[in-house]
Amino acid sequence: MDAKSLEVLRILENNGRTDIPTIAKMVNLGEDAVSAIIRQLETDNIILNYQAVVDWSKARESEGVTAMIDVKVTPQRGVGFDEVAERIYRFPEVQALYLMSGAYDLAVVIEGETMSEIAAFVSEKLSTLDEVLSTTTHFQLKTYKHDGVVFAEPKTDSRNVVSP
Amino acid sequence: MTVKQTSRLSKAVESIQPSGIRRFFDMASTMDDVVSLGVGEPDFSTPWNVCEASIASLERGHTSYTANAGLPELRREIANYMDDRFNAPYDSETEVLVTVGASEALDAATRAIVDPGDEVIIVEPTFVSYAPVVTLAGGVPVPLAVQKEDEFKLTPEALEAAITTRTKAVMICFPNNPTGAVMTESELQKIASVIERHDLLVLSDEIYAELTYDGEHTAFSNLSKMRERTVIISGFSKAFAMTGWRLGFVCGPEDIVGAMLKIHQYAMMCAPTPAQHGALEALRNGRETLERMIESYQQRRNFIVQSFRELGLDCHQPGGAFYAFPNVASSGLNGEAFAEKLLLEEQVAVVPGNVFGGGGEAHVRCSYATSLESIKVAIDRMDRLMQKI
Q1: May I ask the CATH class of domain A56-142?
Q2: What is this enzyme's EC (chain B) (predicted)?
Q3: pLDDT for A107 beyond 70
Q4: What proportions of chain B, in percent to the nearest 5, are helix, strand and coil?
Q5: First and final CA of chain A: distance in angstroms?
Q6: A63-77, A142-156, B110-124: the lowest-pLDDT one
């Protein structure tokens, strides 16, 4: 990939709302050229989506529950882990799914309103899949940092307002 | 404040003025909602691996003095860095000195070479401390203003014209604070020829060397016959976002660095030990973070320069550092009046060009070492001011 596309990607990864005129100025290209780059990145499925990083604990009374579940599975002949992975990631509750090296196979990140909702998902949907051998569920207690963003209070500029 | 008191204070101290930046700092610090383009330091925090290395050094009990010249392994890393990065090899034992910021290095280098009455040519506009440092060392600062028409580069003709029989040294700073000007190797070589012909020394402040966006930085000592005549002054503040750590270094010929070491050992003893351990980590494992910061500065430079031009301000493309230096003559005001009006009416802090010496009177220095969001707000407010004028 060319250097300008990579630069545009880094800008958008850092702030997906950076508008095209701004990006154009930042990378010294015309707005049309930047639009074309972004369209191409989208067409190639390199940019898949644009989302906000939300601190839900500040947005509503119940901040919901997030769990990370370690899942051991039996891989299937011919398709390996992909088929069972698909059966798991199709569930809308599943926010993220990764194939892992090490002591277990799949890491499932799941969000729900309550702990019992998640418990129900694990016992009724996940564990009952034929390929699933075992699950270990970890509930997330607090988010310090997510997707590179620190969830503490926004940092204030402590520098002197004018300096040589 | 210039009223002569009784002779309690030294004449040298009485003859120098507090930095002109101070007045703007005092004004801006009393105001709310100020968007500042006046800050001469990175907006990034020091990379965490550097902080962590320094914390770990404290935990391991490394809290005593180091060698006067600095930790031997840090001096070796600095020598390696100068060689790898700028192809400028130095002997870490005799030609490298770790200082308390580049500011101390500048002061010690000046005191090491200046006798009373020696003239030191100061290429302006430039960082505010050069002339006072020369005065305090008993020397005579000779300001040499570079021109906007030359993109704020030093020309051999202008240098030649400023040289007298008393000239001892020239102080230069490229990439430059406040203009952002850089000079190419061939342009610098012409300066070096003049230096050589008149048997002068060069104090080359290369603190912004890493922040060179178009092309490669040339270490002044790398120019033909300049190694024995050049003291390179640099440090960790700007490139590694370590301003508060106060850690700089010099690389130069053995006799001058040796003389500086004498001054440094009596005035400072050594640079702070925890900061030296942090700097070691910065040199060993800081490159990736550094490059991310450089890319970000470069994007903001592109943004701010183009935005200024859209506002109708005449702004040359700064090739380095993190300052844009637009000419504000189109507003009908000089730099100082413009900066004051901008601060009082639109709460945007910039620094008038005249505080950096001659050549910058029609300009203001705008630091883009601040978030893109702040830069956008500042530009909107400047636009509003321009509409009013």
Answers
A1: alpha beta
A2: 2.6.1.-
A3: yes
A4: 45, 15, 40
A5: 40
A6: A142-156
Nearest to A116 by CA among A132, A94, A139: A139
Calpha distance B4→A125 (Å, rounded) = 87
pLDDT at B311 over 70: yes
Name the one residue in this structure whose structure tokens are 């006046």: B38
State mean pLDDT over B311-334: 96
Q: State which H helix or E strand residue B175 sits in.
A: none
- Domain B11-46+288-388 matches domain B48-286 at the CATH topology level: no
Q: Which CATH architecture has domain A3-43?
A: Orthogonal Bundle (1.10)
**Does residue B136 register a pLDDT over 70?**
yes
- For residue B91, what are its two tokens? 């002997």
Answer whether B145's CB lies under 8 Å from B359's CB: yes
Indicate which of A19, A22, A162 best probes the interface with B, i.e. most B CBs within 10 Å of its own CB.
Answer: A162
Tell me which residues of chain B have a C-beta less than 8 Å from any C-beta of chain A. 19, 21, 24-25, 28-29, 34, 36, 38-41, 43, 127-129, 177, 295, 299-300, 302-303, 306-307, 349, 351, 370, 372, 376
A28 to chain B, minimum CA–CA distance in Å? 6
Q: What is the 3-state secondary structure (H, E, C) of chain A?
A: CCHHHHHHHHHHHHCCCCCHHHHHHHHCCCHHHHHHHHHHHHHCCCCCCCCCCCCHHHCCCCCCEEEEEEEEECCECCCECHHHHHHHHCCCCEEEEEECCCCCCEEEEEEECCHHHHHHHHHHHHCCCCCEEEEEEEECCCCCEECCEECCCCCCCCCCCECC
For B128, the 3-state DSSP assignment is coil
Domain chopping of chain B, boundaries: 11-46+288-388, 48-286
Q: How far apart are CA A41 and CA A7, in angstroms?
A: 12
Using one digit for the tens of pLDDT, what is the confidence trace for B171-194? Answer: 999 999 999 999 999 999 999 999
pLDDT tens column, B80-113: 999 999 999 999 999 999 999 999 999 999 999 9
Name which of B158, B161, B155 is nearest B184 in CA terms: B155
In the numeric block, the tokens 């963003």 are attached to A149
User: Looking at domain B48-286, which CATH architecture does it have?
Assistant: 3-Layer(aba) Sandwich (3.40)
Give A142's Cβ-side CA count (13 Å radius). 4
State yes or no: pLDDT of B2 exceeds 80: no
pTM of the predicted protein model: 0.93
Which two structure tokens, joined as six digits, stand for B20?
Answer: 């002109």
CATH topology of domain B11-46+288-388: Aspartate Aminotransferase, domain 1 (3.90.1150)
| Domain residue ranges of chain A, discontinuous segments joined by + | 3-43, 56-142
Q: What is the pLDDT of residue B4?
A: 55
Give B303's contacts in chain A (Cβ within 8 Å).
Answer: 22, 25-26
Contact present, B235 and B101 (Cβ < 8 Å): yes
- In whole angstroms, give the CA distance from residue B178 to residue B357: 10
- Closest CB to A164 among B127, B300, B307: B127
Calpha distance B199→B3 (Å, rounded): 40
